[in-house]
Every structure is written in structure tokens, then in C-alpha cells.
């Protein structure tokens, strides 16, 4: 959009081009804006004043370059999006409408409706085609209060301690005093990774089990995670209460799908040998059965027993009394 508008001599089009540039999170030297818009530095200063008259809070820094930046204002200004940005936001809003965050479904639908009203026909068709071809799975997880997510996100950004009530898996209630580190979205649930000050250890809390959180105003200590890889650390914490196993399986496929992870080795007969990353028996079984192909499990024996139990339950559910 910027490239199309930059060469326009029409003042309205030039103002839109200037606003589009200022909406990127950086400070623009006046000389660079003038070059992008193909106008003089004096015209840039005049157009900035026009934007201010229209209510856009454009900050300026003194100096030879005279840098400009669009600051946060009392109201949200219109966003200028290129084609790919508009489609990406529309897709994101459609996905958010199915997330287990209380109230976000309605807000996402309202925002998507407003966006689709102003999309050009060519983009509206692309978004509509993608929506028609997509079937979202219904959210079967407890809903999370979005106010809790924003409170924790702000506390993380401000390095601030928080207090909240927490209900564990057994229903026990407790009060927690913690230093939040990261919010984690995994398996259609939200988690808070934090350092529990009373227990002097890292903890992973399900946000849907948190009640009455508030920021204390006290400064949080800067801490390093025990693991340099945050994703690996969170994964280990999620599975800390259940044993994990690495599987070795022959799949009736030429190679293992990429989403499985692990290592796949092609075999001469057109199949492949898959060595999985460590995971729970339940998740390994789910992944393997969801492939829809013949499988031959070599290791571990616990996975073989688990699949045998699943087969027996499935047979009983189907009314087969012999198994």
C-alpha cells in the first residue's frame, strides 16, 4: 500500500502513505520520510501537522534528522494494512473465535465482521474460501478469563510480582505469591510459568484454575530458567507428573509425517522405522493411531500393553464380548 501511495501528488493519498509509514514501530528521520514520499522535508513537516490536527499523536525528536514516531493516543486510529496483513488478521480472528478464552469468541466475531466489511472483494473472497475450507475442532477445555491473561502479561512486561488463588487437580485451594515469567499456550490450554516465592521453585500453573489474581507492585527478581530452552523446560514440567517413553515403531509409510518429530529411517520394503521423542504413553498411542496406517511397535513394552488395553476397550465398546 505504501509503495502505491508514495508517488501520489494528491495530499489525501500522501497523508495515508505517511500514516502507513508511521504505524510501523520505529522512528522515521524526516529525510527518509521525504525520500519515501518523494516530497520535500518541509512538506513532511506540514503533513505531520495535518495528522496532528486530525487527532493522530505524532511525536517528534529534535535534531538534524527530526525523527517522527506515532505514539499511543486516547483512541485507536484506523490501521492501514496491505493485502497479506489483512488476510493474516482475518485468519487469526477466525482462529481466535474458537479458542478457550472466555468472551473472546464474540469479540473476535465482531472484529472479523468489521474487517470483512471493508475488505476489497478479492481479499474477501480469499478469506471466505479459507473459512469455508476450514473445520475448527470445538473447544472442550475450561474457558480462561482474558483479564487474567492481560494481567499476567502486564506483570511479565513490568517485572512485577503477583498473588492469586490456585486450585490444583485434586480440588485443593491455596494462595500463591509468584514472579511470572511467561504465558504458555499448549494443547488448547493456557499456562503461567512462574517462580513460586513461597516454595522457592519454578511452577507451571493452569490459568483456568487461577482465581482473583492481582499485581502487588513489588519488583520481581530477574531470574534465569534452569534450562536454556524455555520450550523444553515447559514441556518437561508438563510431563513431570507422568512417565515418558521413547518409542521405536515401524510405520507402513515411506516416511514419518514431519509433525511427529523424532527420526525416520526408510526401509527397503517401502516402510520406515520411526524413533520418537520422549512422550507419555497416551500421547504416543494417540499419535500412532491417528496416522491411519499399519504399525509395528518394537519399543517400549509399556506402549504395546497400552495399545492392547485400548484395543480391548474399543472391542467392548463395539459390543464384542469375546475380547
Q: What's the tally of helices?
A: 11
Shape: extended
Helix content: 25-40%
Q: Overall pLDDT, averaged? A: 80
Q: Could you say how many structural domains there are in total? A: 4
Fill in the CATH topology of the largest domain: SH3 type barrels
Question: What sequence of helices (H) and strands (E) makes up the elements?
Answer: HHHHEEHHHHEEEEEHEEEHEH
Rg result:
27 Å
Report the major sheet.
5 strands, antiparallel
The assigned CATH architecture of the largest domain is Roll
Task: Look at the structure and give the CATH class of the largest domain.
Answer: Mainly Beta
Name the structural class. Answer: alpha+beta
Strand order of the largest sheet: 6-5-4-3-7
Distance between the termini: 66 Å
What does this protein structure show overall?
- The protein has 323 residues and is α+β, with helices and mostly antiparallel strands.
- The chain has 4 domains: 2-70, Winged helix-like DNA-binding domain superfamily/Winged helix DNA-binding domain (Arc Repressor Mutant, subunit A, Orthogonal Bundle); 83-133, no CATH class; 146-238, Roll (SH3 type barrels), CATH 2.30.30; 248-317, no CATH class.
- It is 40% helix and 21% strand.
- The chain has a 5-stranded antiparallel beta sheet.
- α2 (11-22) crosses α4 and α3 crosses α4.
- The longest helix is centred in the C-terminal third of the chain and has 17 residues, at 301-317.
- The N and C termini lie far apart (66 Å).
- The model is unreliable at 1-8 (pLDDT under 50).
In short:
This protein is of the alpha+beta class and 323 residues long.
